[in-house]
Write a structure and sequence with these properties.
Blueprint: H1 6-14, H2 23-32, E1 37-39, H3 40-47, H4 53-70, E2 89-94, E3 97-102, H5 104-113, E4 127-129, E5 138-140, H6 145-148, H7 150-160, H8 171-175, E6 184-187, E7 206-209, H9 211-217, H10 226-240
Antiparallel strand pairs: 1-3, 2-3, 4-5, 6-7
């Protein structure tokens, strides 16, 4: 089992020679992915590579440089490759291919160091095409660190379920296996009300919502209350009947 603290990651990321060309782009791409998870094939497509082996090499070499700086050794596998990617991410096979999930401590280190690329056109944009009164509009939803924190997200979804609290949309029921566990989480407390010492409560501060409802909640500042949007949805639904 690999255990690397946030501060260890910060130390390694700031060391000379650890972050090479495309390292930040790779980490930002994983950060921007839904649930901070993406396959090598998906990343390869975004990077313009014809296939995924170059991406495997990128994440493996980055993991090896971080491990080398921290003096971490991994046991060789049967293929004689120690799997250096495990320093950067966890992974599991999916229907779309082997998927990497950015390690939570590395995620926190990247955020605190401000190393992530701020891109206007995200490869995994938190944008949805709005419907109804906002027909044709594109509205960007800024997802804060509390919503991206994988532990907080897991606790939120584990408690509330992966079903939208506004419209009750269930991705798994509609799309099958590919929709299992897919949902946004919305931070109820407005960021301007949060102090430096604030600690998120995943059960009471976060709520699962679908991307469309997430966008609608953010049509107002501070964001609309979930119960308000639910009432608007019920009213417009009844009018259409």
């Amino acid at each position: 089992m690999i255990t690397i603290t946030k501060n260890q990651y910060k130390e390694a990321l700031l060391a000379d020679g650890v972050l090479k060309e495309r390292s930040i782009e790779l980490l930002t791409t994983l950060y921007d992915a839904p649930s901070c998870r993406a396959t090598a094939g998906q990343i390869a497509q975004m990077f313009g590579y014809p296939d995924f082996p170059p991406v495997n090499a990128l994440i493996g070499k980055l993991g090896k440089r971080i491990a080398s700086h921290l003096g971490i050794e991994l046991r060789d596998r049967r293929s004689n490759s120690p799997g250096w990617w495990k320093i950067v991410a966890t992974g599991e096979p999916t229907n779309e291919g082997f998927a990497w999930s950015l390690r939570e401590e590395l995620f926190d280190a990247l955020v605190e160091l401000g190393l992530l690329v701020d891109r206007e056109n995200q490869p995994f944009p938190e944008t949805v095409e709005a419907t109804g009164l906002m027909e044709g509009a594109i509205r960007k939803v800024s997802v804060n660190a509390y919503e991206r924190n994988q532990t907080a997200r897991r606790l939120c979804v584990g408690h509330h379920g992966a079903v939208c609290k506004v419209c009750e949309f269930d991705f798994k029921r509609v799309y099958g296996a590919i929709g299992e566990g897919f949902i946004h989480v919305h931070h109820i407390v407005d960021l301007c009300q949060i102090g430096e010492g604030y600690q998120v409560d995943p059960i009471n501060d976060l709520v699962p919502v679908c991307p469309n409802c997430h966008a609608m909640l953010h049509t107002r500042r501070p964001a609309m209350l979930v119960c308000e949007l639910r009432e608007i949805l019920r009213a417009t639904t009844s009018q259409r009947r």
